[in-house]
Specification:
It is a single chain. A hairpin with a 2-residue loop joins strand 7 and strand 8. Strands 9-11-18-13-16 form a 5-stranded mixed β-sheet, with no helix packed on it. It is built from 1 helix and 20 strands. The N and C termini lie far apart (about 45 Å). The protein is mainly beta.
Length: about 270
């Protein structure tokens, strides 16, 4: 009976439920975990570009595969599709994101303020995962008075299922800033915050549960982008005729620091 069950598992179509972390920095090698079903026959993974490569598999079970991914320095920034190659076929696709900033993985336990994970306040992407309905992530960071920092918790647009909120607390736990939706269309939070004084602050990532106890289940991963980048909220016009110069009006925040702009083909 065990042999029959194993053969049935090997013959079933593989499925990816979650990728951890949700991405990595261009020009690096990243340790990746794939969680799903029917992964016993996993042989490799393929991406939508040759600039990202599955290097090796370190361990695998029917529910979990661990391995390493090489991201070329030339890989296009943004989301890419990953699929599992298996003896029983090709899996569904999930997003794996290439970033310009170095990555840092969340470390548990950090679900209480006194257990907050200390992270440096620098341009980076913190990759986290809220395990279950009650999980909350806390990060502690040291800031200088007058510094403006941007905290952008991305999930839905990066392949996760999580609606979340961001809070900035002072060292006593008092809320200084909060956001759960960027606007009426983007349901992931972003906070632009200027720290009032030198000292330690707590950054809290929580999930939206709602009156019905909503939870995103197996794919509550997020990529918390920390930077001092400007924010573009609107651009006019939305397009132009190729081959002709035109003037554009950009609306946003911290645009006085912009030196130039570039366009890239939409993926």
């Amino acid at each position: 009976m065990q042999l029959i069950a194993l053969l049935l598992t090997l013959g079933a179509t593989p499925q990816i439920d979650r990728i951890t972390p949700l991405g990595g920095q261009a020009g690096t090698v990243v340790a990746v975990e794939l969680v799903g079903k029917n992964l016993a026959g996993f042989t490799s993974a393929r991406f939508d570009t040759k600039e990202i490569e599955w290097l090796e598999t370190s361990s695998q079970t029917p529910e979990r595969v661990l391995g390493r991914v090489r991201i070329s320095a030339k890989a296009a920034l943004g989301p890419h599709r990953l699929q599992c190659l298996s003896k029983s076929g090709l899996s569904n696709g999930r997003l794996f994101n290439v970033t310009e900033f170095p990555g840092l993985n969340e470390t548990e336990p950090n679900d209480q303020r006194n257990l907050a994970q200390r992270i440096p306040l620098k341009p980076q992407v913190v990759y986290g995962y809220l395990k279950g309905e009650i999980d909350v992530d806390h990060y502690i960071l040291s800031a200088k008075a007058g510094e403006r920092w941007l905290f952008d918790a991305q999930s839905i647009e990066r392949g996760g299922f999580m609606e979340s909120s961001l809070q900035i607390l002072d060292s006593t736990g008092k809320e200084l800033a909060f956001n759960e939706d960027q606007d009426e269309y983007l349901e992931t939070p972003r906070l632009s915050f200027r720290f009032p004084k030198d000292g330690d602050y707590i950054l809290k990532v929580d999930q939206y549960r709602g009156p019905q106890g909503v939870a995103c289940g197996e794919n509550c991963g997020y990529a918390l982008h920390i930077s001092q980048l400007p924010v573009v909220s609107a651009i006019f016009p939305l397009g132009a005729t190729p081959g002709k110069p035109y003037k554009v009006r950009i609306v946003g925040e911290a645009l006085d620091t912009v030196e130039s702009a570039y366009l890239q083909r939409a993926r």
